[in-house]
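Question (not urgent): is this output format expected?
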Amino acid sequence: MHATPQRTPSRTIGLIGGMSWESTLPYYRHINEVVRRECGGLHSARLLLHSVDFHDIEALQRAGDWDAAGAYLAGAARALHAGGADFLVLCTNTMHRVADAIEAATPLPLLHIADPTAAALAKLGARKVGLLGTRFTMEQDFYRQRLQQQGFEVIVPDAGAREDVHRIIYDELCLGVLREASRQRYRQVIAALVQAGASAIVLGCTEIALLVRAEDAPVPLLDTALLHAEAAALHSLR
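Got this back:
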């Protein structure tokens, strides 16, 4: 009878973070927690972090210059490839808007944030889901379409609610500011999505889970950052 070999981190994760750094911190922590859970002992993750200046990225978002934003993050991908990363993890939902540019920059695979989210939705048996995120994520099709292609109906808040959700992300959460009034506003937005038929809510911005918790909604909330980090950690062990 042969002993089962101990699992160890065998692939180096290349994290593109800093968008914002407030939500990159939980990535680092959760990836290492999963590796410790799976491998035991003093094991921790093999990873590289390229953290960008979010000021630059936000300015390009605001200007709608997605080509320049894609080139910026493609540069980060090339740096991680040169540093020895085996695959890439983009620690933000919104900037998956330029996933194609990142994937084209190196031969490294990109672990798309919507895919572990879709797997978690399928496990829940949810089919009609509410999506919260930045205005870009809620209004453009790059994220919704990825979920729709995997069989999910995606609904978003009305225009006024989208503006509030977006403003709170950039003016508060990205700065580490947590306000009870904003939590209450998110609760109202979530309740409206549930009333519209959503059986789960995708927190499609990595900062949102800094503010809202499971008790803030009558349906499951999916923390995309934690789902993405868990998938990255497990992928590094295969």
